[in-house]
Amino acid sequence: MSGIAGQGRTGNGIVHIAVLVIVILWVMPTFGLLVSSLRDKDLLAVSGWWTALTTTERNEVGRANPPADQVEEAPVYVISGNLFEADGGAEVTRFGISIQDPEAFDAGTTADLKDGGTVTINPDGSYRLTSPEPFEGSRGQRLFYTAAFPPEFTLQNYEEVLSSEGIGQSFINSLTVAVPATIIPILIAAFAAYALAWMKFPGRALLLSVVVGLLVVPLQMSLIPLLKLYNDVGEIFGVPAKTYVGIWLAHTGFGMPLAIYLLRNYIRGLPGEIMESARIDGASDFDIFMRIVLPLSMPALAAFAIFQFLWVWNDLLVAMVFLSNSSDQLVLTGRLRELLGSRGGNWEILTASAFVSILVPVAVFFSLQRFLVRGLLAGSVKG
Amino acid sequence: MQQLLGALVAIVLGVGACALYYFAANTILDLIFPFRDASPRAVRNQKISSVIRPWLFLGPALLVLGVYLVYPVFDSIRLSFYDRSGEEFVGLSNYVWAFGDTSFRSSIFNNLLWLIVVPALSTGFGLLIAYLTDRIWWGNIAKSLIFMPMAISFIGASVIWKFIYDYRSEGSTQIGLLNAIVEGLGFAPEAWITIPFWNNFFLMIILVWIQTGFAMVILSAALRGVPDETIEAAIIDGARGWQLFFYIMIPQIWGTIAVVWTTITILVLKVFDIVLAMTNGQWDTQVLANLMFDWMFRGGGDFGRGATIAVVIMIAVIPIMIWNIRRMNAEER
After folding, report:
1. What is residue B147's predicted lDDT score, i.e. its pLDDT?
2. Which run of H or E residues covers position A119?
3. Residue A340 located in a structural domain
4. What is the β-pairing status of strands A142-149 and A71-73?
5. ipTM at complex level
């Protein structure tokens, strides 16, 4: 309807602003997760992620090196060092020597200590303590300072979750589940879809109704009987009840109605004349399917594959029922759930783990969006 | 790595076995009932094989559907009349228990809330965004970004939103976005997901955030399918802007709106991950799907009660199921 009454694709200012606001609202949550996962964990715990995007001023407490490090520069004893471990571009603006007045002095000036000593803290964080008497005790002097920190990001959280929190192993487990569970159903569904679309046999309409009906059967109905079945099979044959083979088959079953429905709609829409002329040339249904229908159905196969992959990768329920909690079977969603329980307050771990888990589906989503949309439309608004 | 290799082998074996089955079954059928020669039996053979062949094509799919969906439906119904181990018949006592149980009743109540709010908001926002984005040149980019949460798992989305709802006691720096905004506006921070009744809505927002993109994509296609003539006619009659939208376009896409609404409804009934991750049913947020999961494993598992809750979810789905089947049959004619 472009071009009608001047409402083409130019819109007016209000529309632009409205959409912009909505987009920001929708993207903000994920963006916050990404920013947080890249922040230093100590900062993450004490300040909002939005502060990480700009230079921020914070009050910090540091400790000078212990008296053991002092050197004698007659006539005084000196302890020197730098408040910042790495050169991150932070800049000290004010400093103080007591908690009551942490911003007493400008950076670069010298403050007097009680016993005749002095403290100097420079903007770059380097400090110098002097004292006429040798420093005593085992701990260094406390230094209060206010500094401007530029935005700073690190991959440390990712290193941690990938190795010590088991996210790396779970990533491999998720792949192990998702790839076969995506590919195995396709051929099975395609043959059935062809039969339902173009072959004549009694009961076809009924069967189609059954498939459409099964499309909405809640997964919950299947869980308990299958759990029992798997346990029985495991006992009878002396194999473990929770295996990758088991979950591949389960996902194959649960994805089958959608696969058949999507592919059948698509295959039904292929031109019948091609198949008819092939049949006249002596091709059997098997030949027609393999040589004509299957190659022509690639867009629909791709659409289903994306659906199934996203669904299997993001699934928690099926994995919790059909796989065990051991680290060689715990998938990303399951691991994330476990971390939510055990590391509930450690947002650096949760955010980085969550981002690892959404990375693959989001990448699949953005690269193959066209197929996904086409599949959605075929599945929902046909006819 | 070894595991991935195993997965690859499984793909090859699985797909190979399927391919082999279809190929072998067809070849054998052709060998038993040859119809390509000119023998007098060819015609009869072709008839026989055309009766058998569909079932060869359908066989594996029917087997999988039967084992993983059809049989479990009947077995779940059966189990709902049995005790916790599934061995002793107990009649209706699981159902009697359910309707007297406070957490079951509160689950029903919460589920009803979810069923009203989530489809309504997702469809409403989806429609609005579809309408607006069709009007601007960067609409596709906007749509893509709003659609994106659909790729995120419910559990991942829960982490994202739990972070937004994060609560620190008053006086300390809020690191959750919502409480930071609330404090910025001069109000006291709240532990949002622990406030009974209202916390349900904070959980629902997560699903709305995920599903709006789905509604938007489908409704956008439907809006574009509205014939230009109807809109032109309305403009000539003096309709403008929102009038066009509400009186001309929406009535023409009612069918699609219903499809979107019911699809989200089904999803809402099945959703358990969000509740499990956010509250695990605490603070009066329990829903049927999570309650069912809970009973499935609680204290070694109560299969009878778990199955009963599953059957209740199933009953809620049946009207939509019938409507879907009717719609499909109508299209076939």
Report:
1. 92
2. strand A118-121
3. yes
4. unpaired
5. 0.89
DSSP readout, A356-380? HHHHHHHHHHHHSHHHHHHHHHHHH
Note whether B129 and A22 are within 8 A (CB): yes
- Average pLDDT, integer, range B164-177: 86
Asked whether residue A106 falls in the same domain as residue A217, the answer is no
What's the pLDDT at B282? 86
What is the mean pLDDT of the segment spanning A203-224? 91
Please tell me whether residues A208 and A61 are part of one structural domain.
no
Could you say which of B72, B151, B155 has the minimum Cβ distance to residue A362?
Answer: B151
Single-letter residue type at B91: G
Q: End of a domain among A51, A67, A85?
A: A51
With beta carbons under 8 A apart, name residues in chain B contacting A316.
153-155, 273, 276
In this structure, which amino acid lies at residue A365? F
Q: Confirm if A375 and A64 have CB atoms less than 8 A apart.
A: no
Using an 8 Å Cβ cutoff, are A208 and B328 in contact?
yes
User: Do the chains contact at A214 and B296, CB–CB below 8 Å?
Assistant: no
A237 and A271 housed in the same domain: yes
> What residues of B are in contact with residue A250 (Cβ under 8 Å)?
68
Report A:60-79 residues touching B (Cβ under 8 A). Answer: none
Q: Which residues of B touch A30 (CB under 8 A)?
A: 148-149, 152, 160
Question: How many angstroms separate the Cα of A256 from the Cα of each of A186, A190, A381, B132?
Answer: 9, 10, 20, 36
Q: Is the pLDDT at A277 greater than 80, yes or no? A: yes
Q: Positive or negative CA dihedral for A311, A312, A313, A316? A: positive
Q: What is the DSSP string of A295-361?
A: HHTHHHHHHHHHHHHHHHHH--HHHHHHS-SSTTT--HHHHHHHHHHHSTT-HHHHHHHHHHHHHHH
> What band does A3 get if pLDDT is binned at 50, 70 and 90?
very low
Q: What pLDDT is attached to residue A315?
A: 93
Q: Which DSSP string corresponds to A48-105?
A: -GGGGGS-EEEEEEEEPPPGGG-EEETTEEEEEEES-SS----EEEEEESBTTBTT-E
Q: Is residue A310 part of a domain?
A: yes
Domain span at residue A146 reads 55-150
Same-domain status, A241 and A376: yes
Same domain, A41 and A77: no
Query: Considering the domain boundaries, does residue A155 fall inside one?
Result: no
A366 inside domain: yes
The answer to which of A332-336, A362-366, A377-381, B165-169 has the lowest mean pLDDT is A377-381
Check pLDDT > 80 for residue A333: yes
Mutate to test the interface with B, among A33, A157, A224 (most CBs of B within 10 A): A224
Number of folded domains in chain A?
Answer: 3
Q: Residue B69 and residue A254: Cβ atoms within 8 Å?
A: yes
C-alpha distance from B197 to closest chain A C-alpha (Å): 23
Q: What is the mean pLDDT of residues A282-299?
A: 87
Angstroms from A297 CA to nearest CA on chain B:
17
- Cβ–Cβ below 8 Å for A187 and B162: no
pLDDT, tens digit, 9 for 90 and up, residues B194-208: 888 899 999 999 999
pTM across the whole model: 0.86
CATH number given to B99-332: 1.10.3720.10
Instruction: Tell me, yes or no, whether A242 and A313 share the same domain.
Output: yes
Rounded-to-integer distance, Cα A310 and Cα A315, Å:
8
In this predicted model, what pLDDT tens digit does every residue of A76-104 receive, in sequence order?
888 888 888 766 678 888 888 877 877 88
Check whether A199 has a pLDDT greater than 80. Answer: yes
Same domain, A87 and A201: no
pLDDT band at B52 (very low <50, low <70, confident <90, very high): confident
Question: A46 and A133 in one domain?
Answer: no
Please say which residue of A100, A124, A150 terminates a domain.
A150
Q: What are phi and psi of A345, to 5 degrees?
A: -95, -10
Q: What is the pLDDT of residue A4?
A: 44
Best residue in A20, A170, A173, A217 to probe B by mutation, most B CBs within 10 Å? A217
